[in-house]
Amino acid sequence: MILIDGKKVSASIQEKIAAEVKELANAGERPPHLVAVLVGDDPASQTYVRNKINACKKVGFKSTLIHLEPYTSEAKLLQVIAGLNADSEVDGYIVQLPLPSHISQQKVIEAIHPSKDVDGFHPMNVGRMVLNLPAYVSATPYGIMQLLEHYRIETSGKHCVVVGRSHIVGSPMSILMARNTPIGNATVTLCHSKTQNLKEITLTADILIAAIGRPWFITADMVKPGAVVIDVGINRVDDNTSPGGYKLMGDVDFENVKARCSYITPVPGGVGPMTIASLLKNTLLARKKIIY
């Protein structure tokens, strides 16, 4: 079993990004500028945004945090987004999800200009991805594709089972794995909460991607011997023995599954760091205007 080290791969990607930022500086160009918009005080969202801001500093990006109150109106948030769309000094920005229940998440996503949508959630970027056109690809699926490439995991002709159909991970992941690209060309089955005989399907997976958001959902008896297992889940589970009162757990029962795998990602330290690296790559592409 080989442990897929997302921290190591992410650090390597960030080193390359930092080198490109230095090249921009040497040419008299400004660094990429990423803005994070956070609505409310959700602890997990605050942690994610802080990690993204810190990553920007490491690679030499300019970063700005816009922290809005939880009662901020939808109209006010859309006004902030319109300002960011119009700001030529902002290359890309993210609106951290989830949003408070009184704000339409879809309306907000569609208000973000596609050329600054470095999260890759706008329908135009999703559509371009489906058509295999240049696009900002959603950061987590993009990160997983880079992990598969780095570890030279064969995907062509393999059966890939994705468990979870969210618009952020599961659905785009299934599309990317099926595309006619070097990392792709897999036969993909997309499973979800209504899938019958799930265990029978996962047992046929050469590559199993768990993105269902339930701790330890994938158990050892659901995994084909020798499979590649990618665990996207980051679940906070109460734990009084931990300093923060919780511990992070994946969607995969790691300790019992790892003995059956050829490759597996840990949680934390697997897919998570790659999500941030992919966000930085998208922001650099935005600065260089390579996609739009």
CATH class of the largest domain: Alpha Beta
Tell me which CATH architecture of the largest domain applies here.
Answer: 3-Layer(aba) Sandwich
Mean pLDDT: 95
Strand content: 15-25%
Radius of gyration: 19 Å
Q: What characterizes the major β-sheet?
A: 6 strands, parallel
Q: How many distinct folded domains? A: 2
The helix/strand order is: EHEHEHEHHHEHEHEEEEHEH
Structural write-up:
By secondary structure, the chain is α/β, with parallel strands linked by helices. The chain has 10 helices and 11 strands. A 6-stranded parallel sheet has the order 1-11-8-7-5-6. It has a 3-stranded parallel sheet with strand order 3-2-4, with helices on one face. Helix 1 runs parallel beside helix 10 (271-288) and helix 2 crosses helix 10 (271-288). The protein is globular and about 50 Å long. The N and C termini lie far apart (41 Å). The relative contact order is 0.16.
What keywords describe this structure?
single chain, 292 residues, alpha/beta, Rossmann fold, 2 domains, six-stranded parallel beta sheet, three-stranded parallel beta sheet, 10 helices, 11 strands, globular
Summarize it:
The chain is of the alpha/beta class and 292 residues long.
Task: Note the topology.
Layout: E1 2-3, H1 6-26, E2 33-39, H2 43-59, E3 62-68, H3 74-86, E4 92-95, H4 105-111, H5 123-130, H6 139-150, E5 159-163, H7 170-178, E6 187-191, H8 198-202, E7 207-210, E8 227-231, E9 235-238, E10 246-249, H9 254-257, E11 261-264, H10 271-288
Parallel strand pairs: 1-11, 2-3, 2-4, 5-6, 5-7, 7-8, 8-11
Antiparallel strand pairs: 9-10
